[in-house]
UniProtKB/TrEMBL annotation:
Gene3D superfamilies: Winged helix-like DNA-binding domain superfamily/Winged helix DNA-binding domain (1.10.10.10). It holds the Pfam family GerE. InterPro entries: Sig_transdc_resp-reg_C-effctor, Tscrpt_reg_LuxR_C, WH-like_DNA-bd_sf. Keywords: DNA-binding, Transcription, Transcription regulation. This is HTH luxR-type domain-containing protein. PROSITE patterns: HTH_LUXR_2. GO terms for biological process: regulation of DNA-templated transcription.
Length: 261
């Protein structure tokens, strides 16, 4: 890093420290983060166990909020590999999407529709534990005209994590007013169980959730501890019961059920 770049980062850090506990903190923190490694969009959420995520901050334009933010918070987060990593007790830190995504995530309907609609070429995330047991999820994206996040980018984030996490911990130690509870699904099964009869069995719902997340037949077999042929039978039965014939139709049905909640 050049001397000028180092000075710019120090100034950004100073502004962030001065803004702790104020409404200027999150914008200042994101400017500091962008000095570490550039990105073009961000979303910060507060995670607390099995509760739905709470919105903290984003820099999405108003005309794009329905597609980018509202759809995600309405329940699409249940298919997010980063959110799944958190729910499954994964380590905190900085990650690229491809570090935590299922083996066929880029071929999943969720990736092809949601990521295409938000025009991202790549996403990285930082999971920052707070002293009270909650976690701040920072999602940062790069648009289609930018390069994907590299291992060096993630190494830069990892190097500054002690500062980043300390700033968040200090900010959230200030008096705050909690948001009102949201009537949102806590897991994918809450949505799948509402599908019309004949109802899916527990095992079929588990398989359907893995399909939606972007796991291949082989990956599902390993996770579920069953043969690949058995996975294919479950998939066939799921599609038959729901009157569909593709993962795209399963995804559309999932989204439609979210809209009825």
């Amino acid at each position: 890093m050049t001397e000028a770049g180092s000075n710019t980062r120090r100034m950004a850090l100073g502004r962030t420290i001065r803004a702790v506990g104020s409404a200027d903190f999150m914008p200042s923190l994101m400017l500091y983060l962008a000095e570490v490694t550039p990105f073009q969009g961000c979303l910060l959420l507060l995670l607390d166990g099995t509760a739905p995520p709470r919105h903290i901050y984003d820099d999405v334009r108003a005309e794009r909020r329905t597609v980018v933010i509202d759809r995600y918070l309405d329940g699409a987060y249940l298919l997010d590999p980063f959110f799944t990593h958190y729910r499954q007790g994964g380590d905190p830190g900085a990650f690229r999407l491809r570090d935590v995504a299922p083996d066929r995530f880029q071929q999943s309907t969720y990736h092809k529709t949601y990521y295409r609609s938000i025009r991202l070429v790549d996403e990285a995330a930082i999971l920052s534990p707070l002293p009270d047991g909650r976690t701040v999820f920072t999602s940062i994206g790069r648009r289609e005209d930018a390069k994907r996040f590299s291992r060096r980018d993630i190494a830069r984030f990892q190097d500054m994590l002690p500062i980043y996490d300390a700033l968040l911990a200090q900010h959230f130690s200030h008096p705050r007013q909690d948001l009102e509870p949201d009537d949102l699904p806590r897991d994918i099964d809450e949505v799948l169980v509402t599908f019309d009869s004949p109802a899916l069995t527990r095992r079929e719902r588990d398989i359907a959730a893995l399909i939606l997340k972007g796991h291949s037949t082989a990956s599902i077999a390993v996770i579920a501890g069953i043969a690949e042929g058995t996975v294919k039978i479950h998939r066939k039965n799921i599609y038959r019961k729901l009157g569909i014939s593709s993962q795209g139709e399963l995804f559309s049905l999932f989204l439609s059920r979210l809209g009825r909640r």
